Hints:
By secondary structure, the protein is of the alpha/beta class. The protein is built from 17 helices and twelve strands. It has three domains: 6-77; 117-293, Rossmann fold (3-Layer(aba) Sandwich); 298-371, Arc Repressor Mutant, subunit A (Orthogonal Bundle). The protein starts with 5 loop residues before the first helix and ends with a strand.
Amino acid sequence: MPIDDELVCACALSRIFAYNCLASRQLVESVDSIQEIFKMTWKSLAQVFPKHTGYADAITDPSNLEWARRELDFIRESGAEAIFIYDGDYPKRLVNCPDAPIVLYYKGTADLNASRILAVVGTRSATVYGRNVCREIISTLSENPVKPLIVSGLAYGIDIVAHQSALECGLETVGCMATGLDRIYPSQNEGVATRMIGKGGLLTDFTSGTEPYRENFVRRNRIIAGMADAVLVVESKDGGGSMITARLATDYDRELFAVPGRTTDICSRGTNALIENDRAHLTVGAETIEKWMGWRDPSREESRGKRKETLSMCDTPEKRKILNALRKDSPLSVDDMKIATGLTFQEMSVALLQLEMEGRICITAANYYDLS
């Protein structure tokens, strides 16, 4: 069988090295063309991998190239594509991660190198609070003229809320999968996944027929963190996939954001710990992300400022103090607002309730207030 197709060789090599992406990438970078690897003798390959001669066995086994040709045919027939790490369509942010896969399988329309990419992750056991905060942040980000691409893991809880919210707000969203493109897991998310293909996409480094093994979800997380500019953790317990993604974000030098929650909430223990240990920016709204990432739009800020200026007219002194405080710096916690206004908690509670009933302010997260 002639060895003349770079992508076939890449797919075969990706399968052979499976969970050892670093070794496969180092091997690819040591040659002028990936085809050369499959022309090497068993003896030469065994010298490269003296402690793992199984790699030499697999590379010199022609059945792996035959499998790769069949896999590529299947991928293309299903309307998807395989992307080699040297291709221009490969996520450029992910290329800089040492454990990036040499091949990705992708089905969708979104640009994987969009100018702004935000990964949103969280617990599968999301609370109403977490779901609402997730929706609010994504909704606000969608108002920016430069739309961010939302990336998540297509799992239960915060992941699927992030995908759904993005679709509802007109944002493209990409799901990073722990299976091949031929299987949506969990199956309950198939409807959302189908919509995402036309308004975003599905991405994986797993081949068809791959089962949703536990270790695959951990491996999938490096793609979520690696292809994004920043990672937002909405809710997370002490451990789990979201905390792994948070660690990877730090390892990859990505900005990390976390939404605070009550200290008594199990689903907020992880996010609160990230904030407490100065590993993540405390995030109560999209404004925090826009500020740190330089994503603020001057025209929106000017419009927002003008809107705030009109809010303090014809109000009680207590209302004016609150509105003025929010005009200068928002969102604000109840404690910060008390300091900024000099009001007692009783005076502030009455004014906050009146302003909220009038629809002029809103609670953004964990007793933080902002102008509506």
